[in-house]
């Protein structure tokens, strides 16, 4: 009786398996992202969120030594609102290039004249990271 | 990097307008900014200066000539800038040249102290700095 009961119980009991949670591929031990999946392609897949782009652009602009950080908002125009000249403008664009690891062509770089335009351009750029 | 700059260093014809000279200046400034990471690596500058400080230093040197309106003179200044940049990127200079010229600036180590020569007159202090005053 007992062995038959035991068999019947064992056939019906299902415990959730935890083995798959515990298992990590061996590459996870040395991979710096700690086992998270990561696309190896540099474009597509992961893309910067708009808020993150905005925060980082504002941080770069605020760290520019010649202007007052409290005046910087998303809408501020570099030359009209923040009192910069054209050379400062180019310098800021270069700082943004460095921050987002981009190379902005001259035609587009000339058009980036305010924080909102910079955010828009960088957000739409497929290679910004 | 060095070879790409060498192509630019070929003497271009003169700028026809002030606007063209102006855009050449900006092109030079961008080229200099984009080569800054290489410069930081070549001269091992990571512990003395940041890329943004060097960028401001280049901008300050360009801004010194902000009142020049002759396109030929601007072309000449840009050419000298490209020459200097090519020399730096080609590692024709040594670390102390770069630090002395672009990190410390013309005043060198004297500027941050304000302690020395306290007894000397205002005239003498200015005389040591420059005789244009």
TrEMBL record, chain A:
GO terms for cellular component: mitochondrion. It is found in: Mitochondrion. Keywords: Electron transport, Fatty acid biosynthesis, Fatty acid metabolism, Lipid biosynthesis, Lipid metabolism, Mitochondrion, Phosphopantetheine, Phosphoprotein, Transit peptide, Transport. Its main location: mitochondrion. InterPro entries: ACP (IPR003231), ACP-like_sf (IPR036736), PP-bd_ACP (IPR009081). GO terms for molecular function: acyl binding; acyl carrier activity. Residues 51-126 form the Carrier domain. It comes from the Eukaryota. Pathway: Lipid metabolism; fatty acid biosynthesis. Belongs to the acyl carrier protein (ACP) family. PANTHER family: ACYL CARRIER PROTEIN (PTHR20863), ACYL CARRIER PROTEIN, MITOCHONDRIAL (PTHR20863:SF28). Carrier of the growing fatty acid chain in fatty acid biosynthesis. May be involved in the synthesis of short and medium chain fatty acids. Accessory and non-catalytic subunit of the mitochondrial membrane respiratory chain NADH dehydrogenase (Complex I), which functions in the transfer of electrons from NADH to the respiratory chain. NCBIfam families: acyl_carrier, PRK00982.1-2. Complex I is composed of at least 49 different subunits. This is Acyl carrier protein. The lineage of its organism: Eukaryota, Viridiplantae, Streptophyta, Embryophyta, Tracheophyta.
TrEMBL record, chain B:
The lineage of its organism: Eukaryota, Viridiplantae, Streptophyta, Embryophyta, Tracheophyta. GO terms for biological process: response to oxidative stress. It is a peripheral membrane protein. PANTHER family: NADH DEHYDROGENASE [UBIQUINONE] 1 ALPHA SUBCOMPLEX SUBUNIT 6, NADH-UBIQUINONE OXIDOREDUCTASE B14 SUBUNIT. It is found in: Mitochondrion inner membrane. Signal peptide: none annotated. Belongs to the complex I LYR family. One of its GO terms (cellular component) is respiratory chain complex I. This is NADH dehydrogenase [ubiquinone] 1 alpha subcomplex subunit 6. Keywords: Electron transport, Membrane, Mitochondrion, Mitochondrion inner membrane, Respiratory chain, Transport. The keyword Nucleotide-binding does not apply. The keyword Electron transport applies.
